[in-house]
Amino acid sequence: MFYLVLLAMVAGFLALRLYSVLGRRTGHEQPLPKPAEERAPVRAVTRTVDVTPEVREPANRNVEDSATAGLRAIVAAEPGFDVTRFLEGAQAAYRMTLEAYWKGDEDTLSHLVEPDVANAFAEAIRARGEAGHVLDNRLVSIERAVISDAAVLGRDARITIRFDADIAAVTRDGDGNVIAGSTDDAVETHDVWTFARTLKSNDPNWKLADTDEA
């Protein structure tokens, strides 16, 4: 009996000690997490980044309204047609055609232009040669290329582009002397070229069909 009473007293003493340590709150305890339905909603924090936003120009900045319907007709006939790629190719053709004409390279011109245009270029090249003149021109830059018109008639498609470019134009005589133009100054030029192609044909190339000045 004495041992039972002693064990009971020891058990009571330990219970009081445990309560004194675990049962009382000191005010420094971490609060228990609330159930999900009782938690306050977390507000998203907006972060600001000190970076200048990229400004994108409209995708149709190089297409005038007058050409929209014609371009849609071309895309309807050939879904793979891409305006951006066409403009890139047209600018390359513009440079190649001018350089071939300045050099009198009729063979290259025959692959780039329609027969009527090739004949007009050939006549100008012959007249230049008969006068003993040599063109020493250089395309400095193409400032802008804008599609101003487009049309489809049957399977024949035509796209007109206005080129704004800077060209250094020099004409020399047979001895190499400058008789017109300047090697130092570039002249602003505004050309309107029309490219043509038969849609759904095996030949993917567009050729120069008409030239004019803006």
Short description:
The protein has 214 residues and is of the alpha+beta class.
Description:
- By secondary structure, the chain is α+β, with helices and mostly antiparallel strands.
- The chain contains five helices and seven strands, in the order H-H-H-H-H-E-E-E-E-E-E-E.
- The strands form two sheets. It has a four-stranded antiparallel β-sheet with strand order 2-3-6-7.
- Helix 3 packs antiparallel against helix 4.
- It is globular, with a radius of gyration of 40 Å.
- The N and C termini lie far apart (122 Å).
- The relative contact order is 0.13.
- The N terminus is likely disordered.
Helices and strands in order:
Blueprint: H1 2-23, H2 68-77, H3 83-103, H4 106-112, H5 115-130, E1 134-135, E2 138-153, E3 156-168, E4 170-172, E5 178-181, E6 187-198, E7 207-213
Antiparallel strand pairs: 1-4, 2-3, 3-6, 4-5, 6-7
Helix pairs in contact: 3-4
What share of residues is helical? 25-40%
Going by helix content, strand content and strand pairing, the class is alpha+beta
Cα end-to-end separation: 122 Å
Average of per-residue pLDDT values: 80
Adjacency order of strands in the biggest sheet: 2-3-6-7
**Which sequence of SSEs, written as H and E, runs from N to C?**
HHHHHEEEEEEE
Q: What portion of residues belong to β-strands?
A: 25-35%
Using only C-alpha atoms, the radius of gyration works out to 40 Å
The major pleated sheet works out as: 4 strands, antiparallel
